[in-house]
Amino acid sequence: MNISIFGLGYVGCVSLGCLAKNGHYVIGVDTNPAKINQINSGKATIIEKEVDTIIAEQRSAGHISATDNVAEAISGSDISIIAVGTPSSEKGHLNLQFIFKVAENIGVALRNKSSFHIIAIRSTIMPGTCDKVAAEIEKISGKKRNVDFAIVDNPEFLREGTAVHDYYNPPLTLIGSDNPVAAEKVAELYRQLPAEIIITDLKTAEIMKYINNTYHALKISFGNEVGNICAELGIDSHKVMEIFCKDKQLNISPYYFKPGFAFGGSCLPKDLKGLQTLAHDLYVEVPLIESINRTNEIQIQRAIKLIFKYNNKRLGFLGLSFKAGTDDLRNSPTVSIIEALLGKGCNIGIYDKNINLAMLTGTNKDYIDSRIPHLSSLLVNDPVKLVHDCDIVVINTKEPEFRDLVHGIDDKLIIDFVRLDEALLTKNNYIGINW
Ligand SMILES: NC(=O)c1ccc[n+]([C@@H]2O[C@H](COP(=O)([O-])OP(=O)(O)OC[C@H]3O[C@@H](n4cnc5c(N)ncnc54)[C@H](O)[C@@H]3O)[C@@H](O)[C@H]2O)c1
Fold first, then answer.
1. Which active-site residues does the annotation give?
2. Based on the structure, what is the number of domains in the chain?
3. 64: CA distance to ligand 1 center in Å?
């Protein structure tokens, strides 16, 4: 394929060489004459393992060149990759001036192009940017999006220092698009790489890089806070994290990575508090670990606000314990929500087949007696009756028996805190806590 790459920095230079090595003809565009000269002299524009050799080989094979002539690059390519910088502004916002300058240049060049052109943004951009870039190109070129040109988001996941290795071994290839033909054409560039190609909508692709990098920063900071606590106790933190990483079921796994309700139960809140107190007693600052409770509290407040938007209604709660399949009410976020809503005068009914008040004992019973002493008057034995008698159904646990029941509800609002079932998302009377 004939490809043009806008921006010959880290991402652009590596893509230029690696795409050419995979059999494509690639023309690089940059505003910096020194970088153009370097490529045309067979030299890399960056210091990075293996890139020098690849650029030298591909230049002498005639597979790559560089220019500042946008019209030449656009007319000579079917796909343009944008890899210009997207730095932070002084106030922390994304500075998109380089992206929009390239959009403007491409828009002008497209005025004289009659064949379909694809623009793939490889730079890290905020959700909604592709739509803005497409609008800019439409305005300047007079061409129509998805008729004359298409735009896709194709975030780059390489790390400096191992960029060529990462290019050929990405964790995955991500393409965000509203145009299946363009998405497929961009996917073709990466078919020979040993990674899954995921094609999704534009905004999902655009936000992914921010989620990934924030999580990477979170991992490093979590490891450091654990390390600092361990060091004070004379425990080898590397041994601790090595064992931590061996648990592929709960620790290094998709488990717990489902946006939804706050955590609760008898263990997580207690042991989190324990570690926070241990760090405090050791005079070790752990702001990350300490902020976890606050995030959980915000999630409970979010749930209360969502329900309270529909004030003065009868509320039917499906599930009361902290998760499905248990009668443990200790630190159940649903108990906190119900307590708050009762305080605001809401009319509440609850169904939870696992809760049998007569069977509750020990700390579980003490907990609920102190929070909702008249719980028995709110419990309903029949879920169908509960649904029938309320205006809003609130799903709090992923109890399988709720699925059929909730699917049949069309005449009242369903508020879901646990993403009970994907199929519910198509219902008009359905709202998720954060989806
Ligand atoms: N560096 C990385 O490891 C890495 C990894 C993944 C993603 N990213 C993202 O990729 C993007 C590029 O990062 P980078 O580190 O390669 O940037 P960079 O600053 O090294 O390179 C950007 C290049 O774009 C050129 N440029 C600026 N305006 C131009 C224009 N109008 N036309 C053509 N060229 C223009 C600059 O001269 C420069 O050579 C950023 O959004 C970054 O966040 C970077």
1. 267
2. 3
3. 18
The domain that contains 90 carries what CATH number? 3.40.50.720
**Radius of gyration of the chain, Cα coordinates, nearest whole angstrom:** 28
Q: Which domain-ending residue is among 151, 167, 200?
A: 200
The answer, yes or no, to whether any atom of ligand 1 lies below 6 A from the CB of 9, is yes
Which atom of ligand 1 is nearest the CA belonging to 46? 20
Span from the CA of 135 to the centroid of ligand 1 (angstroms): 22
Q: Which two tokens mark 177?
A: 């698009």
> Counting atoms of ligand 1 from 1, which one is nearest the CA of 160?
3
CA distances from 272 to 37, 117, 227, 290 (A): 57, 53, 16, 9
Q: What are the pLDDT digits (tens) for 58-111?
A: 999 999 999 999 999 999 999 999 999 999 988 888 899 999 999 999 999 999
Q: What is the mean pLDDT of residues 125-135?
A: 98
Residues 311 and 408 in one domain: yes
- Mutate which of 30, 72, 97, 211 for ligand 1 pocket (most atoms within 8 A of beta carbon): 30
d(CA 135, CA 138): 5
Q: Are residues 87 and 221 in the same domain?
A: no
